Amino acid sequence: MILIVDDRPENILPLKKILELHNFLVDTAESGEEALKKVLKTNYAVIILDVQMPGMDGFEVANAIAGFSKSKDTSIIFLSAVNTEKKFITRGYTSGGVDYLTKPVDPDILVLKVKTLYRLYRQQQELRETQLSLQKEIEVRKQAQEEIAGRMQELRLVMSSLPQMAFTIAPDGQIEYVNEHWFRYSTDPTTFPQTHPDDDVCDEWPVYLKSGIEFTREVRLKELETGNYRYHLLRILPVKQQNALVRWVGTYTDIHPQKQAAELLEQEVELRTKELLIKNLELERSNHELQQFTWVVSHDLKEPLRKIQILNDLVKEQFLSDIPEAVSYLDRSINSSARMSSLINDLLAYSQLSTPAAFQSTDLNGILNEILSDFDELLSKKNAIITVDSLPTIDTIPGRIRQVFQNLISNALKFSKKDVPPMISITSERIKEKRIDSEPASDGDFYRIIVSDNGIGFDERFIDRIFVIFQRLTNRTSYEGTGIGLAIAKKNIDRHNGIISARSQIDKGSQFILILPARQNNEIE
C-alpha cells in the first residue's frame, strides 16, 4: 500500500488517481500526526511525504517513522515546491528519505520510482520471510540432531548393558557401533564376525539392506579364544522415522545350549519313533494273532457245546421224560449251555469290531426294516408297539450300525415290564453340533437318533457302567443277557466318530441317544 501525506487535499487527489490507475492501493493523511497514527497500524511499502506542512513538517515525520521498527523497510519520497535548496535536499536524505522530488512532479517519473521502490519492498519482505523460515528450519534441525544424539547415547548405554552382541549399522551398511561382547568373535569393530562356511550371509544381507526389511538368521560364529563355532540367532531390525530409514540395530543371541538340547531331543524323538513303529508292528501282529485265536477258540468251544445240548435233549426225551427231577436238572444244563453259546457269539462279535471296514452311504430305514423283520416273531409274542420316524441316509459301516440298533431294540424287548406290552419309539432330527443337547439345524452336520422304551429303566447313577463289557444292572435269573450288547454298541458308535448316551428312571423306561455324523471321510476305519 502507498501512503500520501500532504496538508492540501488538492495536492493529494491527483497523485492518488495516478497511482490507482497503475493498480496501487493508496491511503492518505492530511497531517504529520495523522500519518504517524496510520503508520503504527498499517504496513506501507512507500510513503510520499510533503516537506512543508503545519505542525510537524515532513522531516520531523520521517525522523519519527525511522524510529518505528515496523517501518524499517518502508521507502520515503519527499515532495517540496519551496524547499528546493541543497541543504533541504540533504536534510531529506539524512531524515531517512530515499528520494527528494521538487514540484511540479513528472507523473511518469513518480510512478516509475514508486514501482521500483514497491518492488524493492516486496523483495525485502520475501527475503525476510525466507530468513525466518531458514532460522526455524535450522532450529528444528538442531533440535532433531540434539534429540538423535541423546537417543543414540541412550541406545548405546542400553546396548552396552545387553548380554548379547549388539551393534548398529548406518543406512549405507557401515557398522557404526558395537558393544564389548563383539570382541569375543571379532577384532575389527567394522567387520562382521567370522561365520561357518555353511552359514555365510554375505549374499543375503545386501538384499535386505536395500529393501529395508528385518533380517533374521541362525548362524554359527567362530569364537576367537577357543576357535569353536557356537550357534547364534542374528537379528537386524530397521529403525525408521517418518518412513525414512535412519539406521539398523542388530543383535547376536547365543542359542548354542538350546540348539544342542533341540538336537538331542530330535535324536530322542527319532529313536522313540523307531521304537513306536516296531511296537506298532508287534501290536498289529499280536492283534492279528489274537483275532485268529479268538476265532479258533470260539469255533472250538461252540462245537462241544452243540454236542452237549444235543445229547442233553436226547437223554431228556428218550430216557428221562418220566422223571421230573432229572428233567429239571437237564433243563438247567441246556439253559447254561445256551447262555455259554450266546456269550461266545457276543465275545466273537466284540473282538471283530477292530477289523478294518469302509464307510458307505447307508439308508437307516432299510437297516431298521431288516432288524424288525428279524424280531417279527418276538414282537408278535409280546404284543410290542413300534413307531419309527423317517430316518436319514448317512455314511456308516452297515454291519456295525446294524449291531447297534439290533442291541438297542433287543434290550427294549428284553427289559420290558411283565404283563405290559413294550412300546418302542425311534425318532431322528438333524442337529448343528456333536453334542447330546445340541439345537436342531436343517443344515447341521450331525443327526440325533433317540430309541425310547417303556421298560423297567435303570438308575442313572450307574449310566457309566452300562456301556462297559460284562456290566449288568439286573439279576441274571430275571433277565437273560451277557452284558456285552451295550459295550458292542458303544464301540461301534465310537468307530463312527459319534456319541452314545442314555437317560432313564426306574420303572419309567429308558432313552438311548445316538449322535452320528452325516458324512464320514473315506478312510478305512
Oligomer: single chain
In terms of per-residue confidence, which ranges show pLDDT below 50 for 5 or more consecutive residues? 475-479
Number of contiguous helices: 12
* Biggest sheet strand line-up: 2-1-3-4-5
Quickly give the structural class.
alpha/beta
Helix content: 40-55%
Strand content: 15-25%
| N-end to C-end Cα span | 99 Å
Question: What would you say this structure looks like, in words?
Answer:
The protein has about 525 residues and is α/β, with parallel strands linked by helices. The protein contains 12 helices and 17 strands. The strands form 4 sheets. The protein has a 5-stranded parallel beta sheet, with helices on both faces. A 5-stranded antiparallel beta sheet has the order 7-6-10-9-8, with helices on both faces. The chain is elongated, with a radius of gyration of 55 Å. The two termini are about 100 Å apart.
Provide a quick synopsis of the model:
It contains twelve helices and 17 strands. With 525 residues, the chain is α/β, with parallel strands linked by helices.
Q: Can you give keywords for this protein?
A:
525 residues, alpha/beta, five-stranded parallel beta sheet, five-stranded antiparallel beta sheet, 17 strands, 46% helix
Sequence-ordered SSE layout with sheet pairings:
Elements: E1 2-5, H1 9-21, E2 26-29, H2 32-41, E3 46-50, H3 58-66, E4 75-80, H4 86-94, E5 99-102, H5 107-161, E6 165-169, E7 175-178, H6 205-211, E8 215-222, E9 229-241, E10 244-254, H7 256-318, H8 324-351, E11 360-363, H9 364-374, H10 376-381, E12 385-388, E13 393-396, H11 398-414, E14 423-431, E15 446-453, H12 485-495, E16 499-504, E17 510-517
Parallel strand pairs: 1-2, 1-3, 3-4, 4-5, 12-14
Antiparallel strand pairs: 6-7, 6-10, 8-9, 9-10, 11-13, 14-15, 15-17, 16-17
Helix pairs in contact: 2-3, 7-8, 11-12
